[in-house]
Amino acid sequence: MLGLEPGARIDDIKKAYRICARKYHPDLNKSASATQLFIETTEAYQFLLAHYKRQDNLKDSDFINEWESYKKEQARRTAYTHARKRYNNFVRSDLYKSTQILDRTRFYIGIVFSVFIIIMAIHGYIYRLKMVDLGFEKPTLAGFLFLLFIGILFLVTSLLFLYNYHWKNKK
To answer: Taking Cα atoms as reference points, which of 113, 168, 124, 170 lies closest to residue 146?
Structure first.
């Protein structure tokens, strides 16, 4: 239903759910089967999340079957509730917001890491210039410029991805 390969990571499950939820939400998809597809998508998402978290703890097949049917019914009720919401309200729900936290965090970590690279390149070059007086070799300008270029390239890339993410989510 979510188009995932076996053994998908939790991040992949959440990303696939966001894509399918947007695709099948009844406010955005006017087909007759949109509500049912949205419900099935939410069921699959909640089942995969629960199964992913408990896959090592569940061994008894009767217990697994009982647990799966309970969770499926619970997911169906939740999905039915979300399908009846307006899309804007659905996007504001905790279920949807929880899937976006990882996306935003990834961009901010990239920005912090790139600024760290730039600062360390500048600091390292200045430090090495000061060490020349103590008998160390003069640092190469090419090495400094290379690290600075990598840091700036990483920063620009992170900012572009963040801009694209915010621009895409405003639509």
So the answer is: 124
Alpha carbon separation from 3 to 8, 16, 27, 150, 171 (Å, rounded)? 10, 7, 22, 35, 24
Structure confidence at residue 38 (pLDDT): 85
- pTM recorded for the entire structure: 0.45
Six-digit token string for 76:
């169906």
Q: Which domain holds residue 35?
A: 10-92
Q: How confident is the model at residue 155 (pLDDT cuts 50, 70, 90)?
A: very high
Q: Residue 72 falls within a domain, yes or no?
A: yes
CA 66-50-162 angle, 5° bins: 160
Give the pLDDT of residue 1.
67
Is residue 1 included in any domain, yes or no? no
Q: 106 and 47: one domain? A: no
Check whether residue 109 and residue 153 sit in a common domain.
yes
Higher pLDDT, 12 or 116: 116
How far CA 168 is from CA of 97, 160, 164, in Å, comes to 15, 12, 6
